[in-house]
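Minimal example, chain plus heme C.
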Amino acid sequence: MIAFHISPVLKVGVRAGPSYVLALMAISVMGIVTGLHSGCLPPPVDSGRDTPPASDADRSIAQNSVKMLAEGRETFRFDTFGSESFWGDALKLHQALAGSANGGVGPGVTPNQALQLGLKVDSDMLIPAVIESLQSGTLNLDDPLTTLDLLRADAVVGVKGFFDQNRTITSIGIQCALCHSTVDDAVLPGIGRRLDGWGNRDLNVGAIIAIAPDLSALANVLQVTQDTVRAVVNAWGPGKFDAELTLDGKGFRPDNRTAATLIPPAFGLAGVNLHTWTGWGSVTHWNAFVSNLEMHGHGTFFDPRLNDPVRFPVAVRAGLHDVRSNPDLITPKLAALHFYQLAIAAPAPADGTFVREAARRGESLFAGKAGCARCHVPPLFTEPGWNMHTPDEIGIDSFQADRSPDGRYRTSPLKGLWTHQKGGFYHDGRFPTLRAVIDHYDGHFDLSLSEAEKDDLVQYLLSL
Ligand code: HEC
Ligand code: HEC
């Protein structure tokens, strides 16, 4: 699949579409299957057994895993699920990005402003000449036209621009990668190669929504004014989003702080039973939920728990417990999307980013005196089984738990914690540092941890 070069400034690289990726990956699996183990599948890690030759059934499973991975990655990175009908056609967000000089409205959004909003640029989509001009500072990052060029090159992570033949932007849709990928900053801060699964804690989703010219779609469903919608989303801040707003209409907590929650990572989730901060369901439940109800894609979603006028009045008004679309742009993609997400392991911290000796002592505390491993069971770091706890058990208020069907908080899987220290910890970032989390547990569970022990625990958490 080749994306054509339209812009004189930025060229779209050859995008490795499904068939290309598939072919490459199939070759690499065949390499393992036929080359390394002479006709055998790779043996299980600890197996002392002789591996028998691969059967047709074994081979077909291995080939399916390659296909699922490639398709799922394509969906995670590039599928909008038809969400352009909401972000473009209804909210007209593309017009605000373009600005009046380019067929839109207002001043437009420059690349520098987009980077300030936490949007990321995928350098694999840019030709070397553009990367050089970025590094030498000669590419104009203060012109909304360059933003449009980047969108045309499919280089803005998680955002897809649609253009007509006159190169005018006509709509815009969003992808999973918007919130759950970032980049490695290899070219410049905010510009580099993709890191799938990392929560984008720089992304100011609320500020992006707030610049949309027409928020009537949200205002109508929430039964408030557009100004109120703007005030609610402007209060979210970087790294946060409120997936429950369009279910219960609650924009703020009782203490008047935003009701939004942090964007969690979407890696290290294999083996974890329930997902999201409040354990709404499995990974695939949430994938269907978010693509239909939050991204405003067009698919099928069924969850009768939402048909609860007391807890979810907005969802009931909008009929969100039983969504059907024709054509269904989501359901056929859910299996591979699930598979891809489970394949994303939590990234290991680099050497030297934590103190190894202290981490080793912290590990003993985690399993022993501090009692953490009772809930954060290694190596999943959540409970195998029903990984949910009442607000009282962990010593916090019930506001966010009450916005979900189970009324509980899910034990966060802790691997890769080092990647998401920005924005704080716990669902709403209430603890600014890991040390603050440990202080909370020290008080709540009466642990009598010494200062040195707390430091060791922090080092252990940073090593996961
Ligand atoms: C606008 C930002 C945004 C987009 C787009 C988005 N998510 Fe999320 N995602 C979130 C937030 C916020 C949460 C936490 C929700 C909660 O607890 O209420 C979350 C939670 C999750 C979780 C649970 C993680 C865990 O720790 O259990 C998964 C899995 C996930 N999202 C996958 C996806 C997939 C797949 C897509 C695309 C179909 C997607 N998300 C699109 C913001 C987003
Ligand atoms: C009773 C079960 C339980 C015990 C014991 C427990 N935790 Fe937790 N932990 C949770 C739950 C539930 C959450 C999610 C809270 C939230 O998001 O509001 C959590 C969240 C966390 C987080 C934040 C993760 C994130 O992504 O923001 C850290 C860090 C953490 N726990 C570390 C520890 C440490 C260290 C200990 C031992 C001192 C410990 N926990 C003991 C249940 C537990």
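Residues 211 and 453 are 47 Å apart (CA to CA). Confidence is low (pLDDT under 50) at residues 1-14, 16-40.
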